Structure formats: C-alpha cells, structure tokens
Amino acid sequence: MTPPEPDPGRDAVTGFMLRSYAESGHLSFAAPSADVIVRRARRRTRTKVALSFAAVVAVAAGSIATITRLGPDPDRDPPIIGPTPTPSVSVSPTPAPPPTPATTSPSTPPPDRRTPSRSTSPTGTPSVTGSAPAPLSVRGVDWANATITMTASTGDECLTGRIRFVDGRGGGSGDAPHIRISSSYDEGAATFGDLNGDGRDEAVVYGSCLAGAGDEDASGQVLVVTGRSGQLVGSWVGTVAEVVDDVEVTGGRLVISSTKKYAEPEVPVDRTYRWTGTRYAQS
Amino acid sequence: MRGDQPDDRAAFDRFFQTCYGRISAQIHAYLGDRAEAEDVSQEAFLRAWQKWRDISSYDDPLAWVRRVAWNLATNRLRRLTVAARALRRQPVVPPVPAVQPDHVALVAALRTLPERQRRVIVLHYIADLPTAEIAASLGVPQGTVVSWLHRGRAKLAEHLSETSSGEAVTS
Questions:
Q1: Given A60, A248, B32, B86, which is the most exposed site by the fewest CB atoms within 10 A?
Q2: Can you spell out the DSSP letters for A109-123?
Q3: pLDDT at residue B75, as a whole number
C-alpha cells in the first residue's frame, strides 16, 4: 500500500534517493570473513557449555523425580477457551530432551541432523495415556516448531487451543489469524524458572498474535509456557506492543522490564507478575 | 543449533557474504551510525550461525536475521539517543570513499525523522517489506503504518529539497 504523494516534484527526488539506496546502499558495506563470526560464536559457546551441562543434569534429575510422584495436581493449568485440545497428548519435542542441547553443543550432531525438527509428525510423537500424564520439560524445546495449547488472552482476539508452530508461525496463512513465536524478544534464549510453585520450571518466551488483515490487535507480548499437564500450555502475560528489555524469574515471580514503543521520552518500566492459580496477575 | 559440517559452513559463508551488506545498510539508514549498524548486523548473523541448522532450513533465513537485527537495533537506538541528539547538531562525519553522496544525504535526512517514521520508511522502501508485515511486526494497525509512511516521506522530501540547493548537509 503506497501513501498518496504530497508534492510530485520533491517526492520524485525522494523516491529516486530511496530507490538508489535500496539498490546500492549495501555496496559500501564489505562483509568481513565469516571466520570472524564463527570464532566469536565459538568463544561465546565455550563459556555457556559448562552452565548448560549443569542445567541439563538438573532437568534430567527433575524428570526422574516427577515420574515417581504422579498423581492429582492441586493446582490447575490456565483456562483454555476456544477449540478444545484433543485428549491424546502430542508433544514436540519429546518429553526427555537429549543430554546435549544443540544450541550449545560444539560437536556430536545427531545422525538425522538434516531433518528439521518441524517435520515431526503427530504419529511419531508419544501418546500419553492414563489420567495423569507426565509433566513435560520446557527445556530444550524448539519454540519455532513446537505445538502449544494457547489459553485465552485478555482483550485481544488471539487464537486459542492447540497451535502447531512451523518456523515460528502457527495458525492460518497469509492475513488469516495467526500467532508468531520466538524464544525471546531479541531472539536470544528463553528464560526459565518456577512460576506456579510446583517445583518445575516454566519457560518465558515471546509471541505476537494477528486477528486478521489490518487488525488492530497485532501485538507482541510475553508468553509463559508450562509443561505441567504433559503438554505445552501458553499464557500471555503483561502489556502488549512494548520493547521487552529483559525478563527475569525471581522468587516465583516474573519481572518484565520493558519500554513503551514510540514513547518520548522512553522510560523503562519494571512490572512484576505472579500466578494466581488461574492467570498471571500484576502484583 | 550450530552446523559443524563443511557444507553447513559453506552455506553460511555464502549467506553471510550475500546478505551482510543489505542488513547493514538497512540498519545504518535506521540508526544513522555505520559502526553501530555493522555491530548489530554481525551480532544478528552470529545468532543465525548459532542456530544455523534450524535457520538454514527456513524458507526465508534472511527474514529471521532481519527481525533479530531490527530488534537489536531498537534496543541499541535507545542507548544511542543521547549521543545521536548531540550528533544531529554536528556536521555529518565524512563518509568512507565508497559511499555515494546521495546516500549520505538520505541517511542524514532520515535522522531528522521521528524514530517510528524512519523505521517504517526504511522497512518499506529500503527493505521492501509490505505494510501489512511491518504492521504485524510493530504491533500497530496497517493504517498507522501507512500514515507514518506518508508523513515521513513528506518530511523527507521537504528536507531533501532544502539540502539539495548547494548547501552542505548538516542535518
């Protein structure tokens, strides 16, 4: 959609300069050798590997512990409004993550490394039977290609029910209602911590929903995902359409540091949210 | 999910060499600072390499890098705001030899626009994104994006016509 042109003469000059920049502005930027990028990534990975290994061991220990105490859970998952998820639980990825998360593993790639994780078919996923499905770890989830049951949002008309994400997008194609998801606002790692007091970590990621073409609810928002009921269940938290500077789980509460988009002056705000048993409320 | 095979590395090298300039140019037009733009661009590609096994299978890996770069640039811009205000009062830094004078003038003119107008103009006219996609990424209605484009372009035209009368561009 092109806006009406205000002044043909002046605007022609502007148009010419914009086109010129679009076509050849990149020529003045010479890419360094990709070795520079790869070496920097490797240095960063080394510092993370030790930490990640410790985390995986802790998660694995947690999974074993939870198997031994299956039973009715006193707390509930967030309410799900809209399409009801199917009773047979399909999970992506598998409940027990591999001991070497690929984001930090410098070696030993799996043999089927060329197969993208999104190709996992429903028939290939474990089906959990019985009344008390094993909780699902939210660690090691490939968020761009996960299947998440979305709970109702407050105010916005986001899709609800079970959404299968492919390349970070789930729902309809084109302008049809859909949700985009990423591990964090700036595509960094997700944040983890126990937010509902059950001893298992929730994941804090980022998403945005579009209710349809030209809709006014297209807005990014923090998304908390829990795996307590054996499936990934997501709840929107906090204010929409802000620049999210940081999220932190501390003392069982979620602190979101954000800045309102386009505000003058820009003032960062910290807001704290806690799980009430049915939703995340600001406290 | 970093790729470690020679094929992965070769594909990443090609992707990086092909796309680095375009991402850097877009971020430069937005931030108005070459060094910051290159820094942001390199960080975005670094994150792409860290997840290359996934990202290389995407239909449009460049879209992922662009989104990361713009999010990083938004955060960076805030820290640069104070410095940028001071810079606006100074003559534009002499460009590197390969930079066309028109491009210097355009980037200088873009710096006079409010952040949101500059952002949508760069995304639409330079990164060639449709207004619907820009609206979705910013969390604003499409009509708002069109309105910002309209106002920003009018201001840009005004500024460029003033500075094209022989005076040095001082933005």
A1: B86
A2: --TTTTS-GGG--GG
A3: 75
Instruction: Name the more confident of A80 and B136.
Output: B136
Alpha carbon distance A263, A242 (integer Å): 10
Look at residue A190 and tell me whether its pLDDT is greater than 90: yes
Q: Could you tell me which of A70, A43, A216, A189 has the C-alpha nearest to residue A133?
A: A70
Q: Average per-residue pLDDT in chain B? A: 82
Among candidates A107, A208, A243 on the partner chain, residue whose Cβ is nearest the Cβ of B4: A107
Residue A108, pLDDT > 50, answer no
Tell me if A29 and B28 make a contact (CB, 8 A cut-off): yes
Which tops the pLDDT comparison, B91 or A169? A169
Q: Which of B12, B153, B161 sits opposite A3 (nearest CB)?
A: B153
pLDDT digits (tens, 9 = 90+) for A221-280: 899 999 988 999 999 998 877 778 889 999 999 999 887 765 556 677 899 999 988 889
**Cβ of B20 and A29 within 8 Å?**
yes
Among the partner residues B16, B71, B96, nearest to A28 by beta-carbon distance: B96
Distance CA B149, CA B139 (A): 16
Contact: A25, B29; criterion CB under 8 Å: yes
Query: Which residues on adjacent β-strands are paired with residue A164?
Result: A147
Residues of A in contact with B16 (CB under 8 A): 31, 34, 37
Rounded CA-CA distance A176/A173 in Å is 6
What distance in Å separates the CA atoms of residue A184 and residue A189, rounded to the nearest whole number? 6
